[in-house]
């Protein structure tokens, strides 16, 4: 009988798949790999969707995805890795939310699925086929799960909230400019 069971194998596969996808997406942002745009292009995109400053936002998202994904795949510091990845995906979900749920319509389905998988791994732990297990779970203690997820939720709420405020202000400024233009054309 093996010392590993179906749960350990299942967690390994989930970690490798979720972590690998997240790390690849982060590498697109950080390095321009896999058809990505690197920090400059991603930073410009981040600015265009309300995350400012764009370059800093691109770096943070890229590090959370690349680092969180790689650590999840390895099963190392699983609570922090899962929380970091989930926070990045929550920020991505906020961008896609106006398009509805389904990814084929530009919705948040894909980002939310990655966030839930990363959160699930943070909560469930990495299993015995992991570096956390090999190291005696020194970076995977029970108290670390709510601490990592709570801290990430707070920071994500602040970042997404600031983005929403920026977008509302931009919409208000645009409406005021249109009103002023109409007044100039048609008189008061």
Automatic annotation (TrEMBL):
<dbReference type="InterPro" id="IPR032808">
    <property type="entry name" value="DoxX"/>
</dbReference>
<keyword id="KW-1133">Transmembrane helix</keyword>
<feature type="transmembrane region" description="Helical">
    <location>
        <begin position="107"/>
        <end position="124"/>
    </location>
</feature>
<dbReference type="InterPro" id="IPR051907">
    <property type="entry name" value="DoxX-like_oxidoreductase"/>
</dbReference>
<keyword id="KW-0812">Transmembrane</keyword>
<feature type="transmembrane region" description="Helical">
    <location>
        <begin position="70"/>
        <end position="95"/>
    </location>
</feature>
<dbReference type="Pfam" id="PF07681">
    <property type="entry name" value="DoxX"/>
</dbReference>
<comment type="similarity">
    <text>Belongs to the DoxX family.</text>
</comment>
<protein>
    <submittedName>
        <fullName>DoxX family membrane protein</fullName>
    </submittedName>
</protein>
<feature type="transmembrane region" description="Helical">
    <location>
        <begin position="144"/>
        <end position="162"/>
    </location>
</feature>
<keyword id="KW-0472">Membrane</keyword>
<keyword id="KW-1003">Cell membrane</keyword>
């Amino acid at each position: 009988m093996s010392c590993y069971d179906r749960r350990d194998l299942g967690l390994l596969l989930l970690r490798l798949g979720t972590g690998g996808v997240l790390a690849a997406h982060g590498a697109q942002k950080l390095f321009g790999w896999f058809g990505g745009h690197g920090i400059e292009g991603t930073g410009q995109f981040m600015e265009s969707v309300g995350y400012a400053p764009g370059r800093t936002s691109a770096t943070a998202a890229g590090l959370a995805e690349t680092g969180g994904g790689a650590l999840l795949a390895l099963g190392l510091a699983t609570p922090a890795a899962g929380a970091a990845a989930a926070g990045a995906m929550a920020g991505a979900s906020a961008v896609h939310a106006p398009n509805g749920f389904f990814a084929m319509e530009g919705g948040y389905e894909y980002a939310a699925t990655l966030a839930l998988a990363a959160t699930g791994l943070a909560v469930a732990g990495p299993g015995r086929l992991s570096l956390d297990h090999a190291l005696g779970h020194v970076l995977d203690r029970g108290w670390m799960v709510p601490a990592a997820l709570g801290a990430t939720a707070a920071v994500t709420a602040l970042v997404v909230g600031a983005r929403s405020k920026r977008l509302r202000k931009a919409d208000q400024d645009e409406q005021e400019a249109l009103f002023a233009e109409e007044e100039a054309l048609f008189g008061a």
